[in-house]
Design goal:
CATH topology of the largest domain: UDP-n-acetylglucosamine1-carboxyvinyl-transferase, Chain
CATH superfamily of the largest domain: Enolpyruvate transferase domain
Radius of gyration: 21 Å
Structural class: alpha/beta
């Protein structure tokens, strides 16, 4: 049997890495980025910025970005390939919308099935000329304009990507842009703007609602950025240590952003022994260590109001639920149907294949935990090309003597190229 033991520094945060590159490109000079996540998704953003005339080079372990200012993108010579990255596509569409250039955004088969109209409706109201395939999908053609109309946007659906895209568009517009979130989302963009001294007003409207007001255009002075380690990547090892007997791990340099570690509160409610210690602040983000010890978990109900903060962690939380005593109910997961795969389907079908009682009712997932399931023959896990499904079931496989066979491990490089080597570092036979 394996247990997880020891300490590692997780790779750079994916969300912050995308934003670090884009904001560095909008600065008026050289920005050094440390601990950038060099995953497939983040490299898509980097390559697109190069296509838009931004000089980017690697020196030792750091990346140097030579920003051209907020209106500094140039006409690309070819279509901008986003691969599998929804963050790349939505943030970069927002960023180019207020530059006077024409761009075509394309993606892989999975990304080409994900909705882009949820962003384009706002940009079109401002005056951007956009053509979508079947009125919703990539390929997307956009004709940007620095004279777009700055206006008030009321976001009906919670989406940190759409919010960030609208912020990026507003940076090069003359006048006031106001974005009202009816349900708060992750705030990496705002924290990075604070760190870069980009002035904006943020108001708490009520418990779940916030407004952000920007008054452009902006000149952003260069400042070096240090990317904190990814809590969503840490989540796999945290759950692994909780469910695998005799485990005890410490993860370092983890971003402790409240909008990103809600999954830890969920795991603590399930009975998880998890300790967090803040150690410093990196480029506007609180950072610290997380210690995790094997625990006996119990099933709980996770309300729909938590879903914007758990969107990437539901697959690995489902693995935790499979080992918890009793029922775990996760409510209001409609957004999971629009990720790299239909994650509700991916989670239910794979857990059921192993022998767990797991069902979906509309947009809810219900899992009955069991420690009595034993696997004699190998079970093939279908990832549907989804990196988080692949990593979640790789963790569960450790518990079953590596008898779960992941059909496509290559998709893991989308977000966490070092996942396997980090897992091997922590895995000890006993």
């Amino acid at each position: 049997m394996f247990k997880l033991k020891g300490s590692i520094k997780i790779s750079g945060d994916k969300s912050i890495s995308h934003r670090a590159l884009i904001f560095a490109s909008l600065c008026t000079g050289k920005v050094k980025i440390a601990n950038l996540l060099e995953s497939d998704d983040v490299m898509r953003t980097l390559k697109i910025l190069r296509e838009l005339g931004i000089k980017i080079e690697k020196k030792d372990k750091n990346w140097l970005v030579f920003g051209n200012g907020t209106g500094g993108y140039i006409q690309p010579n070819q279509a901008l390939q986003c691969g599998n990255s929804g963050t790349t596509s939505r943030l970069m569409i927002g960023a180019v919308s207020s530059n006077p250039i024409k761009c075509t955004f394309i993606g892989d088969n999975s990304l080409s099935k994900r909705s882009m109209s949820r962003l384009s409706v706002y940009l079109e109201k401002m005056g951007a000329k956009i053509e979508l395939t079947k009125k919703d999908f990539l390929p997307l053609h956009i004709k940007g304009d620095m004279n777009l109309l700055p206006m008030e946007h009321v976001m009906q659906k919670a989406s940190a990507q759409v919010k960030s895209a609208l912020i990026l568009s507003a940076l090069n517009l003359r006048g006031k842009t106001k974005i009202i979130e009816k349900r708060n989302t992750r705030d990496h963009t705002e924290k990075l703007m604070d760190y870069l001294k980009v002035k904006f007003k943020k108001k708490v409207l009520n418990k779940n609602s916030t407004s952000i007001e920007l008054n452009g255009p902006y000149e952003i002075k260069p400042r070096n950025i240090n990317v904190a380690s990814d809590p969503s990547s840490a989540a796999f090892f945290i759950v692994g240590a909780l469910i695998i007997p005799k485990s005890n791990i410490t993860l370092k340099n983890i971003a402790l952003n409240k909008t990103r570690i809600a999954f830890i509160d969920v795991l603590k409610k399930m009975g998880g022994k998890i300790k967090i210690k803040k150690t410093k602040t990196l480029s506007g983000e609180d950072v610290g260590e997380i210690n995790v010890i094997h625990s006996l978990l119990k099933g709980i109900k996770i309300s729909s109001t938590s879903s914007p903060y758990l969107i990437d962690e539901y697959p690995i939380l489902s693995v935790a639920a499979s080992q918890a005593k009793g029922l775990t109910t996760m409510k209001g997961l409609s957004e999971l149907r629009h990720k790299e795969s239909d994650r509700i389907k991916s989670i239910i079908s794979n857990l059921s294949k192993i022998g767990f009682h797991a069902i979906s009712k509309k947009d809810d997932i219900i899992i009955k935990g069991s420690k009595k399931i034993s696997i004699t023959n190998r079970v093939k896990i279908k990832t549907y090309g989804d990196h988080r499904i692949a990593m979640s079931f790789s963790i569960l496989s450790l518990l079953y003597g590596n008898k779960l066979i992941i059909d496509d491990e290559s998709c893991i490089s989308i977000s966490y190229p070092d996942f396997k080597s980090h897992l091997e570092t922590l895995s000890i036979l006993y």
